[in-house]
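Record type: ASSEMBLY
Status: queued
Input:
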Amino acid sequence: MQVTTLTADQLDLMDRYWRASNYLSVGQIYLHDNPLLTRPLVLEDIKKMLLGHWGTTPGQNFIYVHLNRIIKQHDLSMIYVSGPGHGGPAVVSHTYLEGTYSEIYPEISQDTAGLQKLFQQFSFPGGIPSHASPECPGSIHEGGELGYSLSHSFGAVFDNPELIVACVVGDGEAETGPLAAAWHSNKFLNPVSDGVVLPILHLNGYKIANPTILARISHEELEQLFRGYGWNPIFVEGDDPKLMHEAMATALDTAVAEIKDIKLNASRSDTFTRPRWPMIILRSPKGWTGPKEVDGVPIEDTFHSHQVPLSHPAKHPEHLALLEDWLRSYRPQELFDSAGRLLPELAALAPEGKRRMGANPHANGGVLLEDLPLPDYRDYACEVATPGVQGIGDTHLLGPFLRDVVKLNEALCNFRVFGPDETISNGLGALFEMTERQWTGTTQSNDEYLAPSGRVMEMLSEHQCQGWLEGYLLTGRHGLFNCYEAFIHIIDSMFNQHAKWLKITAEIPWRAKIASLNYLLASHVWRQDHNGFSHQDPGFIDHVVNKKSEVVRVYLPPDANCLLSVMDHCLRSRHYVNVVVAGKHPAPQWLDMDTAVKHCRAGIGIWPWASNDENGPLEDTDSIAETDLVMACSGDVPTLETLAAVSILREHLPSLKIRVVNVVDLMKLQPEAEHPHGLSDDAFDALFTQDKPVVFAFHAYPSLIHKLTYRRTNHHNIHVRGYKEEGTITTPFDMTVLNDLDRFHLAIDAIDRLPQTGAEGAKLKQWLNDKLLEHRQYITQYGEDMPEIRHWRWGSKDGE
Amino acid sequence: MQVTTLTADQLDLMDRYWRASNYLSVGQIYLHDNPLLTRPLVLEDIKKMLLGHWGTTPGQNFIYVHLNRIIKQHDLSMIYVSGPGHGGPAVVSHTYLEGTYSEIYPEISQDTAGLQKLFQQFSFPGGIPSHASPECPGSIHEGGELGYSLSHSFGAVFDNPELIVACVVGDGEAETGPLAAAWHSNKFLNPVSDGVVLPILHLNGYKIANPTILARISHEELEQLFRGYGWNPIFVEGDDPKLMHEAMATALDTAVAEIKDIKLNASRSDTFTRPRWPMIILRSPKGWTGPKEVDGVPIEDTFHSHQVPLSHPAKHPEHLALLEDWLRSYRPQELFDSAGRLLPELAALAPEGKRRMGANPHANGGVLLEDLPLPDYRDYACEVATPGVQGIGDTHLLGPFLRDVVKLNEALCNFRVFGPDETISNGLGALFEMTERQWTGTTQSNDEYLAPSGRVMEMLSEHQCQGWLEGYLLTGRHGLFNCYEAFIHIIDSMFNQHAKWLKITAEIPWRAKIASLNYLLASHVWRQDHNGFSHQDPGFIDHVVNKKSEVVRVYLPPDANCLLSVMDHCLRSRHYVNVVVAGKHPAPQWLDMDTAVKHCRAGIGIWPWASNDENGPLEDTDSIAETDLVMACSGDVPTLETLAAVSILREHLPSLKIRVVNVVDLMKLQPEAEHPHGLSDDAFDALFTQDKPVVFAFHAYPSLIHKLTYRRTNHHNIHVRGYKEEGTITTPFDMTVLNDLDRFHLAIDAIDRLPQTGAEGAKLKQWLNDKLLEHRQYITQYGEDMPEIRHWRWGSKDGE
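Status: finished
Output:
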């Protein structure tokens, strides 16, 4: 007698459980009424709009049943990531069958009435979306946009040594770039201190209307590909449910045994060798167990099963009978009792309590979230005895702070820094005094800061950095992504999805808030003078502010003390996306720590020491003094150029009253009705006046300032300079000149708006234009900026 | 005696040629003067700012020398794509040595003076960038942003059966998602009708500060990985130049022989089998031939050689001697004559004329560009006897037009349609009456429209679609990318780079203009009601308009005839990025073809048949009649809702004078100083008045309209509705309600801005609010929109 993994009884029970989940899935797509088919199906039982994706669903149902078995058998802590998340009926069906759904949504009870509601709500106005959406317990991955399931899964298991993420990768999704690169994440996973990702590549065969690439290469190539990626693929292929149940059970037993072996060996070993983790390649028919053929068109195992196979029972009455046959093929009377409750011998197959994948707390990470222990950021302050002292580069002061965040975090182990390959380049090298880059590839003697475990994650894929970080945050930890400003656009679309996830989950009471996703864009547009035009794009902010104001924050600290204050705030915050743009090159420092803290807390304010309109830092807006001109700035380089311009104007036109306003928190500019940080109109008017010219030097594209301020009283007087897509390899100062953001242009802009400066103004304007010519000649001759630019300091004359 | 590929003479000559290119590369990075080292090096000979990337350069120089040999030997048409394009000195050095550089830039002559200028200009203000930038002949790929070299290469060879693209893929770049997926492009290449990509994976070992993944996996895994991807990898590994020359020459001979075999066999065979194309894996030291060690730190073969190895000769005088040793190690006197000219026996190694990779016309595709033969789009018109007739879905009328573009293009074979998997879903299924999807994977009986050659390219990777199309356009052909609107953000960053390329090349006289990159975003935000929130994002337009106005165009045709007119225009245009947003679902049609043509030519205009302010289509702005209200709209769904709102207002408030303005060409809204399409202020005022309320229903995020119009006279009266990040699975009409863009909200917005409507207005407002409640109740009960919404037609009452 052949030894099998499953007894005949087990196999029968599991097959029934699978049929139950398939029945519920078809029910969700189609049924408005008659949930247990207690009477013949009639047209009125069918929903009017039929929306959903059947194709991937039965395969995912199959996987879930089998994962339940190994969870119970080995008492595993496992969560389920549905790459083809559009097969939402699968995760909804299973979390309902295992009981988690009804616990969270008591009205979706485990009886006939609950079943009916379960069916009705799916893809219905006021109901639930058709994807593995945030509303579904157990989901950390919506799956609407394809490509990120594997990165999310790896992010989830970092520092979660007991967790296994079963990650279903669709063969459509597998064609995307982010997914194709994510297989290499195994070169970063530590078998002792991290958990395990068990990828299940689901060769469903088809996309919407095409076969998939991986389903149409030879078995040999497929095996080579995944062995080349460093995995040990276990194949499960077929369409006969009985044979497939046995094969899948055996494959999972093998995989779990390999995982246990790897972890045990690693924990016992002194030396580190990257293991070859198991994965499963499951080839099963798309639309498995669905209609074989409709109107002469083959459905099962073709792309025609992608969405709703019988889509118009109203127009084609014969489809009604087909649908009824299909539903009855699962024999619901063998699955549910007359009250609509799953039979107890089937219910017993699901794990219990928090072992259920829908109830595993890792999939609702906010409930596990602990505050990040932070050192006092004031201890890392740069001394600023007088505004304009030269700093070493703002992020270089942040580095030691982050290093000590890591230090304080040794026990909790819930903080990581992610980036393509730029942690040192971005000025955060101090981190490596405390930790290393986690790397499980081979090492060589000349390598630096690589170790099998560490707090810094570097892979030259912004997609992986973002995906890992998202997975890490979604499972209740903290992190930071440092990136070149221009190339953060690579993950625009991933940001979209995460921001949408945050918006929805904030509205779901049982979803606990998670830590914010923090971006540090340290290699920014104004200091890409040596990389040139391709590295210059400050538009990520524009992209970010299109998302719901409840979840997005943008900070442009003008110096290192402000950066420290802002980053401390971001690391404490919850459920936002925080974008912080800061410099890494030596740059002047403006505010001592006390002043910086007050300034950042306000988010925007007058800098009285730079102004001569006799205002203080504007705490009392009633008593504000008159001014002739507002010179506003946001961002480190624009702040420097603004102050230099103010210094020129004050020297040459001493009677002019000038107010300098600096913006750290960009969202302050929006109306308070549009963003929770927005200034009231009164407060805005107090700063920017109701009628005086405003010259605004901005870090990014100028139109963004107009977009944020168009409703303000004095908007028509706001003149903005910023990046206008001009740039090449040149000097740092010339980058500002090419974009009219330099001190000379800013001063000219001011004079142009101040007719009262008359002949004196005209004379100064001539001098400024001469300066611009002088600059051009100097740099083309010497290849560097004029000494008076390189050595300019606030309060000195000509850089003395 | 061992038979070798290279004779001793050949090897010596090639090694000298390599040394010449290395010498020129180091010279470009460092030297301001003394280009031939005719006297000892002094500090004044060195540039003040040292900028560039040495690490990748010698390896690329090595590759280029060897490619020259096989080009000559086999008379190949080959171009060079530099994935690690930041090694700009390599391509500049080689195009200079082969003579193409001086032909294009005569001042960079082939003598000492020219050498000096060549060195000085590199990474210098007013000079050339440090990447394989557009200024460099032979480049179609700047390489600033990593990940797209292989996709560009495949795009370049489609329909270019004689062309071979030698594509150097850096091992850093190979970690990115887009590159990891691009290896699968071989499943789409036809060996008869397409050219060949010869990938050269350059295992340089390190990124900026890290080893690379592919350099740190075993030889076995590496080979499996690329065999799994379907390639036949040929390994060239080592650091001894002599051995490496021989190995590389042998590898390239093998590769060329395999390529010839494959092409010959394919051309002779009746049946199709996907071939296993050769590729080369070159493992050579990073910074090869550079300093071994500086200040005790190993440089060659470590990441420390990434940029400028001796970066401060001024601060460290001993570095000056090291630099001189390094330069002299190439023995320039054995390479150049005393006049600074490459010795003739070396110059003879380069191919001649257009066979030189810097002179191959495919790398300046505009010179090969032929107009796309187009049928008369008017022949595909939808009959619109009266505004509001129901259409079958706008893109469904575009499909037959595109089908016939393909038909007329059979001989020229220079047009392709790209998309992830959505050509049919996007309404362009008519294409398959004429052509098929090109696919060289295996096929099965239930597949549809797959063939080894075809005009439609579908891979579920927006990155590949974009990269292929860019490569196709850059080599002088035409194309269209159809994509879901939300997911086009996946290629935001690729769009950035292409737009930057277009901007720069437009300014380079010898670069001929190429065809525009055309996006058709047919599955747009307002009809993702069945996919839900994750599929809703109209922000790509915002992203696009940040780029230079000279190169970007955005069109929102309100119906099918306008779409035909717009697409005809886009396919004829040159050197733009055109974004066209259009619907695919059945929708009302407004303009007959003649009217549509006029409307699209104007880009914006009054719709007199929908207005009651007695204006014509506004050709004479002097005689414009007064109005009380402007109802503006842009996009198909906003146009429908605006017309429905106007119809309500006209019925209930018949004395109100209403003007309907429709915007097809979004850039018309910008000031003429900002965009070449921008309306003059007078023309804008004529349309939008100077003081009347404007309710603007917009397809995308409302703030974009404010951003484009904030300088206009009447801006403070423009009230915009658009997508505000509200959406889920619901009915199509409810999507507009959730975002306040529906007819009822628009009418309320109008009344709120028209106090003169008094009690009548208040009464109507109450009615409208009741309608909104009725709508909500209806859809939650029935799951579909009220009949009066579903059947509403312009000119009828309540959908009669």
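Annotation: The first strand of chain A starts at residue 77 and ends at 82.
Annotation: Residues 377-581 of chain A form a domain with the Rossmann fold fold (CATH 3.40.50.970).
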